[in-house]
Design brief:
globular, 28% helix, five-stranded mixed beta sheet, 33% strand, alpha+beta, 14 helices
Length: 488
């Protein structure tokens, strides 16, 4: 808008009006970045270089809690904690930039605060909002807290100008986080979160940024859409379009299904789930599902997901590649550390360096060395390796499939009522099986994961990035509906 208005100063008033109309009706695109599993490990490795003692103190405290029988720090699907896609937002005048996970499964905007205590490692290692440096800041001060599986994120509310997709949203209330629990927050490559759900699930009933964009006339059409690039080698992570859709990223037309905004998710009905074309019988009275960009996998009730995994031949549960590494190489790692080998020499001794997974092996060994200190005994090393993987952010509860069987696995279907009748949306094995490599071995992991959401919100099926990557999704706020089209 600003560039158009500056250019129009040399034009006649009629031309100014034309340019203004074109600007208002245009869609606004937000390029997305994608976090890979290897990116997370690389980031944690950098933390080991920069903050070894603080990370050691942080993790030893969590390990002590777990050994004492207290609640595990890293839990499966803690809302957006496994989010893979994020974009940029600016807050204040002049703008302070942040990377935020874009989450249709929540409705608040929050970023780390400059008022974080020095000992909060997760907050300290990310970009922080400083209200004293913004001329448009307005104090609010209301206490704010969101509960996650790993603890609560807490802070307070503030108000300022927020710039997103080049659009300036005035007087936006958001949260400044002063406490962020768990190693997942430490490892996250994004700073905070921008929720795109309905106001019904907004903590403290804060008006979401999307609502303010519409009320301030910044977006002419009450629609936004997501393209999530599932090609790991692709240059683009994805794209969020505000005010419309991008035909470059989908083929064919949209199939629309109504949304139930109570309690406030992008929730829709599923009438059936099928495997091998046969009904699984899960939805005699309909199943509740939500479209959630803040969840990577496809989550459903544990009993149902366990049956699906059994039907596709998924066996053996791993918390991450870390467990596979430790289970296979503990004796060699222990001996290498006792012999005084450094992480690179240790991984070379078990033939993982050089190689694709060299950096991952070195990270795990370096983390163990950092936590153990000098002159660790063999029992101490084995004891630490036995529990270490629990604290490395990674999807939990994964079931593996024999990779040679993947081409012959059946399609997974969900049947959704649409405005033109029941529509079947299909996920092929290529869509729902994830490949994770370690050295010469490749692990094929099921994208189905169990998550029991209690009533009244659940039981609930969460259609995360695994589904949304296959289907370009239009979030039609104005008509209270979701539109799905085959993604390119």
């Amino acid at each position: 808008h600003t560039q158009n208005m500056k250019a129009s100063l040399l034009c006649v008033l009629l031309l100014i009006g034309v340019i203004a109309i074109v600007g208002v009706n245009a869609v606004h695109k937000v390029p997305l970045k994608r976090i890979s599993h290897k990116d997370q490990i690389k980031h944690l490795s950098q933390l080991l270089d920069q903050e070894p003692q603080r990370l050691r103190k942080f993790m030893l405290a969590q390990i002590a809690e777990k050994r004492a029988g207290k609640r595990a720090v890293i839990e499966p699907i803690s809302n957006f904690l496994d989010a893979q896609y994020y974009g940029e937002v600016s807050i204040g005048t002049p703008p302070q930039k942040f990377q935020v996970a874009l989450d249709t499964g929540s409705s608040n905007l929050w970023v780390p605060s400059s008022q974080c205590p020095w000992y909060d490692l997760a907050c300290d290692l990310h970009s922080k909002y400083d209200s004293t440096k913004s001329s448009t800041y307005k104090k609010n001060g209301t206490a704010f807290e969101i509960q996650y599986g790993s603890g609560s994120m807490s802070g307070f509310l503030s108000q300022d100008t927020v710039t997103f997709a080049g659009l300036q949203v005035k007087n936006q209330v958001f949260a400044e986080a002063t406490a962020e629990p768990g190693l997942a927050f430490v490892a996250a490559q994004f700073d905070g979160l921008l929720g795109l759900g309905f106001i019904g699930i907004s903590v403290d009933k804060v008006v979401p940024i999307w609502y303010n964009m519409l009320s301030q006339g910044l977006v002419s059409s009450p629609v936004f859409s997501f393209w999530l690039n599932r090609n790991a080698s692709g240059a683009e992570g994805g794209e969020l379009v505000l005010g419309g859709t991008d035909p470059d990223h989908y083929t064919g037309g949209f199939s629309f299904t109504p949304v139930s905004t109570t309690p406030g998710y992008w929730q829709f009905n599923v009438t059936d789930f099928k495997l091998k074309g046969q009904s699984l019988g899960y939805c005699p009275n309909g199943c509740k599902a939500i479209a959630d960009t803040g969840t990577s996998l496809l989550a459903g009730p544990t009993a149902a997901v366990s049956r699906i995994n059994a039907m596709i031949g998924a066996t053996g549960v791993f918390t991450s590649e870390c467990e596979m590494l430790v289970s296979q190489y503990t004796p060699q790692i222990v001996q290498a550390l006792i012999d005084g080998l450094d992480p690179q020499q240790t991984c070379a001794s078990i033939n993982l360096c050089p190689g694709e997974e060299c950096s991952y092996c070195e990270f795990v060994v370096r983390l163990a060395v950092t936590l153990l200190g000098n002159n660790a005994t063999e029992p101490e090393i084995e004891s630490l390796l036995d529990i270490l993987c629990t604290f490395i952010p990674s999807p939990n509860g994964e079931s593996t499939v024999d990779c040679s069987r993947v081409p012959s696995l059946p399609n997974f279907d969900l049947v959704v009522p649409t405005t033109t009748g029941p529509k079947t949306f299909t996920l092929t094995p290529k869509d729902y099986i994830l490949e994770m490599g370690l050295g010469q071995e490749v692990q094929c992991v099921s994208g189905f994961i169990g998550l029991d959401v209690p009533p009244p919100y659940g039981p609930l099926w969460i259609m995360g990035d695994m589904f949304l990557g296959a289907y370009y999704t239009q979030f039609d706020f104005g008509n209270q509906r979701l539109g799905f089209a085959v993604a390119k």
